[in-house]
Design a protein that fits this description.
Blueprint lengths: L1 H15 L40 H13 L1 H21 L5 E18 L10 E21 L4 H67 L5 H35 L30 H4 L1 H22 L4 E12 L9 E10 L7 H67 L5 H36 L25
């Protein structure tokens, strides 16, 4: 009869193992995605590493090193390994639990009985001690039959969670490469600014000497000298702040490289790349497949829905089959002479738990709703980032064009003011104002070109890409010296 019941359970397994809850396989965000961006460029975006479009070999080398040595990326790989282990743990529930047990025991039992011939002081009772030995070795197995899809739901949830964490790693890589490029070109921009300030300072020191000579000859007044000296002091005040910014940027890049802050750099290029032409941006719906954070948000809805299925299945009875076989004996030398076995099944059902399981279902469904809204927000954020970067890049180009015109006008104004002062037609104040305006515009123009590069980096980051799908954990380590410093 026992075997008949077990057989009935096994043959009905394929009929009910599909589960009592059907999880969503491809949840949507219920939002309308525009057909095109505001800047109508629907060319297909490339899948190569976006920083290669800058044609900067130094940046390429820097990012290659960061991909291997960045602590954040290494930690992300470690987190992924943790999630993989959890996923495999959940998948292990599909397999039976098999254990080999063995042991030895010795027991004593006392038996009290009446003996009329015993001593009167013992009350006519005597106690006999009996000793017994037990030696055994057993192979035990148990297996939970997933009639309602609980194990299947948890297994799918774990696998999808692993995929989502893999996409998190890709998001981190995209973010860090963009951060590295921004820091790199900000460092170059600050180096250019420092060089320009030093050049402007040299010119102003020369103008100061000339005005002091004119003052000594009675041609200029003391106010002209003081104002020119103030101009020199203003430029000198910019030097320490710019130098401090350069040092801080190097520290930040070294952190991305997993190096100590003061690790020296190789030669830093002296120019910014020309990126005037806009890249192909594709269409908004591309973000659904090319932004790893968007794909991860969608997967996490599926994970939460899978866990709803597990919570629903937990309401139903659980079934297990078990069995054991082995040897047992009271005499160790005769252990293999007595073979024993057993087989059976069990069912467990919750009769009352204070609605704990029902509340678990409500909790899991609420998490699904939250993640649906998060998916929607992630898509909207991605669209905002692309549109914002496109608009800002376009505005930055207009700004640069205006600055170039301003620079030409400021240079012409300076030359005119200088000639009029030399000819005694104007006061030196006009020369000072022209010098200051020209030098400010020169610095602004460098900063504006740098700003254009930053917006291009942010655009590439916002567009995403499929290049991260080919990422693999690189076990290559940098050579270390005896002090533990990393050497490039």
């Amino acid at each position: 009869m026992r075997f008949k019941r077990l057989f009935l359970i096994l043959i009905t397994l394929p009929l009910v193992s599909c589960g009592v809850y059907k999880a969503t396989k491809n949840p949507g965000a219920q939002i309308r995605i525009p057909a095109l961006y505001s800047y109508n460029n629907s060319e297909i975006t490339g899948d190569e590493e976006w920083w290669h479009t800058f044609n900067d070999s130094d940046l390429n080398r820097l990012i290659d090193k960061i991909l291997v040595n960045s602590p954040d990326i290494i930690m992300a790989w470690s987190r992924l390994a943790q999630v993989m282990a959890i996923s495999k743990q959940k998948g292990a529930a599909w397999w039976p639990n098999i254990m080999l047990k063995g042991g030895n025991s010795r027991a004593r039992s006392n038996i009290t009985k009446t003996d009329i011939f015993s001593d009167i002081f013992s009350g006519g009772l005597i106690t006999d001690a009996y000793y017994s030995n037990r030696h055994y070795i057993n192979l035990e197995a148990s297996y939970e039959i997933d009639l309602w899809g609980k194990i299947a739901s948890l297994d799918r949830a774990a696998k999808n969670d692993f995929k989502a964490n893999r996409l998190d790693l890709e998001t981190i890589v995209m973010t860090i490469t963009a951060q590295a490029a921004e820091l790199w070109y900000t460092l170059i921009e600050q180096q250019i600014q420092l060089k320009l300030i030093n050049k402007q300072l040299e010119n102003n020191i020369l103008y100061t000497k000339l005005i002091e000579m004119r003052f000594a000859n009675g041609i200029a007044n003391s106010m002209n000298v003081l104002m020119q000296r103030l101009q020199v002091a203003n430029l000198k005040a910019k030097l320490p702040l710019t130098q401090s910014s350069i040092t801080t940027l190097k520290h930040q890049i070294n952190l991305l490289l997993g190096r100590t802050p003061n690790t020296p750099f190789e030669n830093i290029p002296g120019g910014l790349p020309d990126i005037w032409e806009q890249p192909a941006i594709g269409i908004p719906s591309d973000l659904l497949t090319k932004r790893p954070d968007v794909k991860a948000a969608q997967l996490r809805i599926i994970v939460a829905d899978n866990r709803v299925g597990a919570a629903v299945a937990n309401l139903y009875p659980s079934f297990k089959i078990f069995g054991s076989t082995g040897y047992v004996s009271t005499d160790y030398s005769r252990l293999l002479e007595r073979w024993v076995w057993s087989i059976g099944d069990s069912i467990a059902v919750t009769l009352f738990d204070g609605h704990r399981k029902n509340q678990e279902i409500k909790l899991r469904k609420a998490i699904v709703e939250e993640r649906l809204e998060n998916y929607k927000k992630t898509i909207l954020t991605a669209l905002k980032e692309v549109e914002g970067a496109l608009m800002s890049e376009d505005s930055q180009k207009i700004y640069i064009k205006v600055l170039i015109i301003k620079e030409k006008l400021a240079r012409a104004t300076f030359e005119e003011a200088r000639q009029r002062y030399i000819n005694g037609l104007d006061d030196y104040l006009n020369v000072l104002n022209a010098i200051e305006s020209l030098q400010i515009i020169e610095r602004e123009l460098i900063n504006a070109k740098h700003g254009l590069i930053l917006w291009r980096i942010r655009l590439c980051r916002a567009l995403g890409g499929t290049w991260t799908q080919n990422l693999k954990k690189n076990k290559k380590q940098e050579t270390r010296d005896i002090k533990g410093e990393k050497i490039l």
